[in-house]
Design brief:
The protein has helices at about 50-60, 85-95, 95-115, 130-140, 185-200, 225-245; strands at about 10-20, 20-30, 40, 65-70, 120-125, 145-150, 175-180, 205-210. The chain is an alpha/beta fold. The termini are far apart.
Amino acid sequence: MTDRNSATPHNDDWFTVATADGPMRVYAARPAAPADRAVIVLQEAFGVNEHIQDITRRYAARGFLAVAPDLFHRNGVGTLDYRQHAEAMPLIGAIGPDDIVTDIRAVLHHLESAEGIAVGRTAVNGFCFGGRAAFTAATGITGLGAVVVFYGPGIASGPHAVVDRADRIDAPVLLHVGSADPTIPADQVTAVDRALTAAGADFESHVYPGAGHAFACDARPHMYVEDSARTAWQYTHAFLDRHLPDGVRPSRSDNR
């Protein structure tokens, strides 16, 4: 499996944060040592399932405090099977830009108040629907440390498109998309790149020849493209280490 580092121990658990729309559960994976940087992992269209939890654990193994908020908290669905694509579509369609910003702000507040990790030391990394959510968060929240978008459809077209808000982004952005992804055609990739360029954004955009949607999801073998996934993760780790370099901070007891 691409990007596993199971040699580093971690602790994982759930906690709850308050949002303007009610309580939201958040899955967390902690590194072996106290973290001074965090990653918010945003779910695909199927909830905070085992694959998304696994990604948070991989980040914890690399020294990040990694958290995955349940963006389905308003409807109480929890998770769906990957075969329930038709059921997932109206659920993610109901989550608009304001909802996303509300939820990510709540997580950021918790990270800063409870963990001492500032917004500028926090990245947002989303996949599929979560990729659109990560880009959306960047348009509505200033000061994020970094944003990583894995195959996020609906950024440039659709009811919740936010490409026209690219000029609000002040975080560095990294985008991954497969050239054969039917949910993000080439004209939409171009539209996002042009908007970010016009906005003067600090961004990288990588297109993976022949890869389709969810090419980095090793939980779906029929969609997974190992070479492209490995390269995308290499770019991602280099990008995050550049913008959120690992540091040393006082112990939690000294920080209070």
